[in-house]
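re: that chain from earlier
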Amino acid sequence: MSYLRTLLRDDAIRRLPLWTVITALNTSVLIGSIALGMARAGGASPPISRFVFPLWLAVAIYLSFGPIRTRCRPLDLALPLSARHLWLAHAGATVLAGTLLLTASAAVVVAYGGVLGQPWTSAGLLALVVQLVAATALAVVFLQGARLEAWRVPVTAAWVLRLVVALVAILAWGLLAADGPPALALVPAALAGLLALWIHRSVPQAFDLVVTGGRGAAAEARPGPGLAAGAGWAAESPAAGALRSGHTRWSTLLAILYNVPPWGPFTLVVLCVFVALGGVLLSNGVAAWVPDVEMRLIFLPFTVYIMFSIIGPLTYRLQHVDPLPVSRRTLFMALMAPLALALFVGYGAGWWAHTVARPDLVQFHIATSRGETDRWVHVPPAYLEIAPTSDVPELTAPWGESHPASSAPLSRRHPDGATIYSPFNTPDEGSARFEAWLLGRAIEAVYGHTVPPEQIVERYFVVEGDRVVGIAGGGVPLRTDLQQLSPKPGGPDLAVVLALTAVPFLLLTSLFFTTFRARVGDRARKVTFWSVLAVAMVAMIGHIPLMELGILDLLGSRILFEKLVLALGRTPEVLAVTWTLAAASIVAAYLLAQRQFLRVELPSKPSKFTLVDWGAPNA
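^ sequence. v structure.
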């Protein structure tokens, strides 16, 4: 068999289309953040070194979790192919896959450059890609120098250390050579060729079929057709003896269901951390560290994506717990309960962090730039307004002083259309009394407490003439007084967020379990799983091109969402109806997903819904 044919049959090439899509989507998110930073910096084009990390991350994720360790399939060991032939084909396939992934990521950068009208397609980007390709080739050869006798390299401390060294080396070379000429790539390329020649001569004539060491053997073992159920559990997981050791039913189920590769017994901890992170983001807890974050709605599909991506791998153990004297309703609850608990814990932690870090919902700011002084009142987005046209109302104080409200178009493509404005700010320079009146309006709107303008001027402002030039005590008196006030009751934020997260997740889970039928093949199940994840990923990043094209404004979307939530809590009756509808919708979606789970027909061989290279390939 020729090297080319073996190379094209390698898993590094066969799985490349899916990895390319995911890599491009991931790079799109990172480049979108760079584009946002560039827009805030006045449209200045970032240096070429700014793109090193997004491109490096694309290949780093692939080298960490892709089919790198698997040099061939078990069937290849029975063919008249030498280990050197298989090693060289796999190394070449991995280098080719890394090159194509870097090219796909660079294409995303070029696409964003075209949308923004930036010269990112210059020779600098091409030279950076060439440098990273050469460094990736050297890293791949270095990684393939591990355990030359093994057809599949086990995960050991030595492998992890080798991987870290390789990834750091790629990043370091990219940063050092980002502004250098393409000829510099000859250095890592030459080293890769020399190292490959030396390692190739050290590869044995044949690979060992049984590899000792690492975590793979225990995690990948499956009971044979002649094993009884109890023996199968014992071969499958250390938790198999839990029933005999007196463990409870729930601890046994969780120990088995959440003991899947690559994390083994730490699977439950790792997955709950990610789901809890989604809860923190949904609660707007990130605002404790990043004020005025406007991406909360994007975290809804992100959390659905995280939770759904967990369900697929967890089906790997269903064959081993289904014969147990436990109802499928209990099994389904065992799958859902840890995710729900982690989401609640994360949401609570984020809410607490946000409350502790920013107890003053109303703030007064003053800043001087280029000889001009700006003053503004900061309020939560729910208290901003949206006008149907660019004609925003005038802000008129009781004594007659009037100024237009600060405003911005909801869409850059329609500057005369819907407009966001603040009832508590004006672009004009108002008197100290007028600024105090605006601040008092904000305090009354948020806290329901009335403070006369004269008291605000005397206690909180530093005034020269008739203008505010500073904040008394650095803002400490204002902050201290506001901390003693309780804001008006908010809306049913938790109910709305849970409904918008749990219902889509449960409906998608229900759809996924409909593919577990005898008439549905493994390929159809995988296509359904990855298609759902792709849709969720598109929902996460779809705002980026819409925002750059001026069609969507994240702040405007968040204002509408926050105002809706606030309106749902105006009266106890509306609040009760909202909670009832949210709970009913979640329960209905749960029962629908449970119904599909009860009808599941488990295949004889579990499907692998993961890109992580933890399972032996099919022979």
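DSSP finds 23 helices and nine strands in the chain.
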